[in-house]
Amino acid sequence: MQGPGTLDWTPQWHALVATPVATALHAGVADVLAAPIDPDLADTAAFCAQYGVLMQDSANCVVIAGRRGDSTSYAACVVLATTRADVNTVVRKRLDARKASFAPMDDAVELSGMEFGGITPIGLPAGWPVLVDAAVLEREVVVIGSGLRRSKLALAASSLAALPGAEVIDGLAR
Fold first, then answer.
1. Domains in the chain, CATH or no CATH each
2. What are the YbaK/aminoacyl-tRNA synthetase-associated domain coordinates in residue numbering (predicted)?
3. Are 152 and 7 a contacting pair, CB within 8 Å?
């Protein structure tokens, strides 16, 4: 596999990922390449423009908090950078929540063990559903976060469906 864009991709990801991501990768979650980036360019649009990665080859992972009464549940949504997750309908229903919204930044960072702007579906807490939009799996290779703002991962899009807790959902994104 070759990573997209002009990045210096390497299979030596060990120093380029957050601790929970490293733990998951050591467990054999996915074959990935990693590349260092300027952390000021971690946001998708700036990243793609600087490093020549197509937006449709970049996938975003967002943490959603679903609430019903006093109970809060979390899920991660993986969608192409050209789309947005349907939080208020699809994700809310999947979480059986009365209300669903993007998790507060502090909660997402603390619970995931990853940096905001670098959260990835690899290495998330056990029990979290990882909802993957079916359109993501139509790409050959996608670029995702590494758990850190200073690097990115590239992997076969199909491997996202094999992550612990992964559920492929048609129409998750619009």
1. 14-169 (3.90.960.10)
2. 39-157
3. yes
Q: Classify residue 15 by burial, with Cβ atoms within 10 Å: 0-12, 13-18, 19+.
A: exposed
Residue 74 tokens read as: 């979390």
The predicted pLDDT at position 28 comes to: 82
Is the alpha carbon torsion for 78, 79, 84, 90 positive or negative?
Answer: negative
The residue with greater pLDDT, 3 or 8, is 8
Q: How far is CA 130 from the centre of its chain?
A: 9
**pLDDT tens digits for 28-65?**
877 899 999 999 999 999 999 999 999 999 999 999 99
User: CB under 8 Å to 15, separation ≥6 — which residues?
Assistant: none
Distance of alpha carbon 173 from alpha carbon 139, whole angstroms: 15
DSSP secondary structure string for all residues of 110-131: HHHTS-TT---STTPPTT--EE
